[in-house]
Design brief:
The chain is elongated. The chain has six helices and no strands. It folds into two domains: 82 residues, DksA, coiled-coil domain (Four Helix Bundle (Hemerythrin (Met), subunit A)), CATH 1.20.120; 40 residues, no CATH class. Helix 3 runs antiparallel to helix 4. The chain is mostly helical. Helices cover 67% and strands 0% of the residues. Bound molecules: zinc ion. The site of zinc ion has 8 residues, from helix 6. Interacts directly with the RNA polymerase.
């Protein structure tokens, strides 16, 4: 597997350099300790994405030279448009992360938007921006498929 792929599959926990959360017996769900855990994860993830966006811009400025050969120029334009699409995706993700950080501050984090039950720490560690519990998410995906099909 190429090195860049390995890096991309790096988990969000690894980016934030945190271990999976260990709950104490009888600990309150989404108490201050748990919220801090997710603040740290979401903050580190957002910073990493911001760096990536910044790197893309720098890279494009460095490389934006005028190739005399039209083939080279076309290849460069294609590369840039791919990078712009990636950057767009990253920007959207950053917005979503910031929205999720706001949910933490509003005491609204960790509960399903649809049915209100606890989304669960393990699911949130895998997908910190999840707004639905696994059941509602599965149902939403089935509905989506039915609409499309
Ligand atoms: Zn639900």
């Amino acid at each position: 597997m190429p090195e860049s792929k390995v890096k991309k599959s790096l988990g969000i926990l690894a980016i934030a350099e945190v271990e999976p959360y260990q709950e104490q017996a009888g600990e309150e769900y989404m108490g201050e300790a748990q919220l801090n855990h997710f603040r740290k994860i979401l903050g580190a993830w957002r910073n990493q994405l911001r760096e990536e966006v910044g790197r893309t811009v720098n890279h494009m400025q460095d490389e934006a030279s005028n190739f005399p050969d039209p083939v080279d120029r076309a290849a460069q334009e294609e590369e840039f448009s791919l990078e712009l699409r990636n950057r767009d995706r990253e920007r959207k993700l950053i917005k979503k992360i910031e929205k999720t950080l706001q949910r933490i501050e509003d005491d609204d984090f960790g509960f399903c938007d649809s049915c209100g039950i606890e989304i669960g720490i393990r699911r949130l560690e895998a997908r910190p921006t999840a707004e639905l519990c696994i059941d509602c998410k599965t149902l939403a995906e089935i509905k989506e498929k039915q609409m499309a099909g």
